[in-house]
Batch of 2 targets.
Target 1
Amino acid sequence: MMNPICIVDDEAAISSTVESILKDEGYRAIAFPDAESFWRKLDTIEPSLVLLDIWLPGLDGMQLLKRLHDRIPELPIIMMSGHAGIEAAVAAIKAGAYDFLEKPLHMEVLLDKVESALKHRPSVTGANLPSDTRLEIASADLSIPPGVVEITDSPEPQRTLKGNVVLNGIGLLSGRNTGIILSPLGANEGIVYQTLDGQTIRGHITSLEDFSQPGSTKTFSANSTTLDNGRRRVRTVEHLMAVLSMYGITNVLIKVDEEVPNVDGSAKDFCELIDEAGIEVQPAATKVAVIRKKIGVGKEEKKEKHLTAEPFDGFEITMRVDYPPPIGEQTFTFNPANASFAKEIAPARSFNTFENIEMAQKLGKVGGGYLHSHIIMYDGKVINTELRYPDEFVRHKILDLIGDLYLLGFRIRGRITANMTSHGYNQALVQRLYQAIQSSSRSS
């Protein structure tokens, strides 16, 4: 017979309800009103799982968690709280908890987590964990013959905003409050970032921090896209750039204090911001970058990171990722001609593992903004949120790629195929496309 599941919660209504639910499902269950009574009982019982409330009278849940972890390291413990946010959940897991449940408890979620915990196996160390906090090295031959990418007239007009709009939020990397003001700009002025001291930085590939880095092998930041004019920089522009691209905004002034706010890790709020401002169609034509011959970065093998652009009548992105659980292999194709960017791509949030975030924070590479704006994974599970789509991970990769592609300064007519890439490879491809445009213009 299975060892009992122990519920430690001072709210009698909750503990008795959970106890009844578990017994109805065939589990043995025992409820305790406080940490001390449960601790004394450990001399005579051996739990298979503990459901432990954080807020307890006397010895609190976090203190008991540490004692249990020292005494029975392999015992799975699921923490519960109705008054704690993501910081508490992360602290609990860091202290040895298997998972975290937010009150009010939902029966299906409770039973899923209980079943998962009872089947728990330690995670394999050294696995290929998904990471957006590292650097990527992308090799590409930058000597490109003419005729690979051609700039042609587009039937689409230039667009700006009808008025000024403001958005505030938390900086992903700094973890502090930040904000942006979007304002209209005249025709042919482009995407322009302006820092609080009046410095301007073009929203263009040539403004990348490492654009001038010599040679064909370049190191790019994988966790965000940063623009730089040599004196000031603007970080995490990718989600905003994606929205500007998909809404056809060609001219806009973006006032920013070094970092574009990340809000919830998606582009949903930027879509709402553009809708709030309204779009002004301008009496000037746009141009489009037409892919005439296939061009790419990386080795086109399933186990290798690679990214290609090839001829296609329209614009389409296919992205594939393959990471350990809970992600697995996911492939998604997005074509704005037959799907809504605002509904299918923009709400997809950034993601990372608890281990990667913790390491990056220790190294000073990221701030507290990660905790509030990421899907956080630990030991094969999402620990801080419910997914908006079953394949939210691959959709977010497409969001990032769309934003990075708009650094070319033109929308693209072509098909983009990506395998396991982050910002580093995205930026390397954009740089190749830019070199191809330069090559074609020199030969004409």
Target 2
Amino acid sequence: MAGLRCNVVTPTESVLESEATYVEFPAWDGQKGVAPGAAPFLVRLGEGRLRIEKPTGGSDVFLLDGGFAQMNGGTLTILADSVTVASALKADDADKELAAANSEGLKRGTLDARSSAEHRQRLAYARVALARSSRR
């Protein structure tokens, strides 16, 4: 079976170029998993955990915030709005961000303001989950 190449980029940098045995990421409508031999696709990304399992064992874990993923010719390219290494997340900072996002979400406002607040809440929940899991 052919391998899976995974490239993670943001508008300002190339974050990772690696072989992978499996990649899991948040699509706009839920988690998606990709293994070698996957059919081509293009999907909008959501907020949450990006996990890249390596052929040598272990995995790289990131907090992903939006963008697009494209599978084509054995290469998965993740073009993310932003990516943070999960091990760099601090639980206390993540808890504060979640409290601020929840407070903002309680305010009434325009549709755009509420949409922005909901995005911040989803990202903050993902940040808290990753920060707590990486402490273990």
